[in-house]
Amino acid sequence: MLEIFVDAALLTLIAIHAIAIIRMRSLFAVIMLFSGFSFLSAGLFVVMDAADVAFTEAAVGAGISTILMLATLALTYAPGEVHKEEKIPSHKPWLPLTVVLITGGMLIYGITDIPDFGDANAPAQKHVAPYYLEKSLPETGVPNVVTAVLASYRGFDTLGEVTVIFTAGIAVLLLIGGRRRIKTKLEAAGEERET
Amino acid sequence: MKHNLILRVVSKFLIPLIFLFALYVQFHGDFGPGGGFQAGVIFSAAIILYALVFGVDSAKQIIPPPILRFLASLGVLIYACTGVASLILGGNYLEYTVLASTQLAGQHLGILVVELGVGITVMSVMLIIFFAFAERGRPLEGNE
Predict the structure, then answer these.
(1) Where are the alpha helices (DSSP H) in B63-102?
(2) Is A190 a domain residue?
(3) A40 vs A70: CA distance, rounded Å
(4) Which parts of A112-183 fold into alpha helices (H)?
(5) Which of A33, A137, A175, A194 is the most exposed place for a label (fewest CB within 10 A)?
(6) Any domain includes B141
(7) Is A187's CB within 8 Å of B143's CB?
(8) Is B114 within the bounds of a domain?
């Protein structure tokens, strides 16, 4: 009973966040709402007993990505601009709205075929999951099955993930590493005098 | 934000705790929730908090960018070398069982080392990205 109440409260708050994000024009407020959205999703993952995923969502989704989006916002300010506002779109929303409605309708139609949450007979629980749950403790000695799968059984995949993160770091360094030279007022004035 | 006394005092109190929590998540990830990825992000969050309150330059004095770049590659290297080590000891790539005398000890050691590599890389890449964004758009020093 309590779980249903918590679920309903979290989902309602998430829906309110989503609507607010769509309606808002101030980009700063939108980014902060995105952070709240992520944090509420993390709460939802906790209710579903996925502590590791919740952890990642709270740290990366609500924390780091908010900081990075704020940094991007600060970078894209035009000189003299005080509040960053989303531009009002020049075209009518009918085409995107149709696409969203059709896709959403198909997704909702698909929900009817999804097995119940925590269903022991779901295909996902029948394949390798029983093996991991039964064998991971005697085979690896690690009580946290998520860590055992991530670092040991799926070690190759995790190595790939770390490489992806590393590559992302290199890419950012190559694109916007090093400081961009911004002309100071004095320099700009000096150049004007020369021309 | 250099003159905001409350922020400075509170963050000085919080940052060591965040570091401690990151280390807990890192090395306790095989028993509780968490692991290298989350620990790296939390660790970098502490330094980002420091950078936000005390300025990017003082944060860079704690962890200079060249060291960050070194650490980012070191983490991947630790991970990959664990695989090579198990190859040399006669197992498959990333087969931790051969790393120690018993299977459980080997698995435990392998998971711990690999998670450490993940943590180091994630921490330094997050900071590299944050510093890159924070530095961008600031005028060069000594230019006036």
Answers:
(1) 65-88
(2) yes
(3) 19
(4) 123-126, 129-140, 145-147, 155-176
(5) A194
(6) no
(7) yes
(8) yes
Domain around A79: 1-88
| Alpha-carbon dihedral B104, B107, B113, B117, rounded to 10 degrees | -150
Q: What is the pTM of this model?
A: 0.83
Please report the number of interchain residue pairs, chain A to chain B, with beta-carbon separation below 8 angstroms.
149
The C-alpha atoms of residue A20 and residue A24 are separated, in whole angstroms, by 6
At A72-104, the pLDDT tens digits run 888 887 666 777 777 777 888 899 999 999 999
In this structure, the answer to whether residues A82 and A28 fall within a common structural domain is yes
A83: tokens are 């509040």
Interface test with A, best of B125, B127, B135 (most A CBs within 10 A): B125
From A47, A66, A88, give the residue that closes a domain. Answer: A88
> Quick one: A79 and A7 in the same domain?
yes
B43 occurs within a structural domain? yes
Interface test with A, best of B73, B103, B107, B124 (most A CBs within 10 A): B107
User: Does residue A132 belong to any structural domain of this protein?
Assistant: yes
Cα–Cα distance for residue pair A182/B105, rounded to 1 Å: 56
Partner-chain residue, chosen from B42, B108, B143, that has the shortest CB–CB distance to A142: B108
Which candidate in B28, B42, B56, B136 is best for mutational testing of the A interface (most A CBs within 10 A)? B136
Residue A174 lies in a domain: yes
Cβ-defined contact of B138 to A56 (cutoff 8 Å): no
Closest chain B residue to A64, measured at CA: B45
ipTM exceeds 0.95: no
